[in-house]
Design brief:
The chain is an all-beta fold. It contains no helices and eleven strands. It is globular, with a radius of gyration of 14 Å.
């Protein structure tokens, strides 16, 4: 069973920064075979893809709403993906989830929740104005 554990959420003022971590583990889980995506869900809204990274070659993709402010990275030795979030805005407030998806990495494929196979339980990010 694949396990994904998010950490690093919290309360921050607008304009501040946070770094989220997603640690992946599991029997038989090969980190390099998966893309890891970050998603978020604000109250009353649908879950949306924020960013994804191919664990095998480091290709990345970002949603328009976070391009230039968020950076995704991967430490394959630790089976961990990070999301550095800068210039945070109140509208970034949400529960952030990481997820793992198996298959070819292209375009924004792994920004679609339906493309993901395993999910973490989420970490809350609150940005105050």
């Amino acid at each position: 069973e694949v396990q994904l554990v998010e950490s690093g959420g919290g309360l921050v003022q607008a304009g501040g920064s946070l770094r989220l971590s997603c640690a992946a583990s599991g029997s038989g889980f090969s980190f390099d075979d998966y893309a890891i995506g970050w998603f978020r869900q604000a109250p009353g809204k649908e879950r949306e893809g924020v960013s994804s990274i191919s664990s095998s070659d480091g290709r990345t993709f970002y949603s328009d709403s976070v391009t230039g402010r968020f950076t995704i990275s991967s430490d394959n030795a630790k089976n961990t993906v990070y999301l550095q979030m800068n210039s945070l805005k109140p509208e970034d407030t949400a529960v952030y989830y990481c997820a793992a998806g198996f298959g070819p990495y292209y375009s924004g494929r792994f920004l679609w929740p339906a493309a993901m196979d395993h999910w973490g339980k989420g970490t809350l990010v609150t940005v105050s104005s």
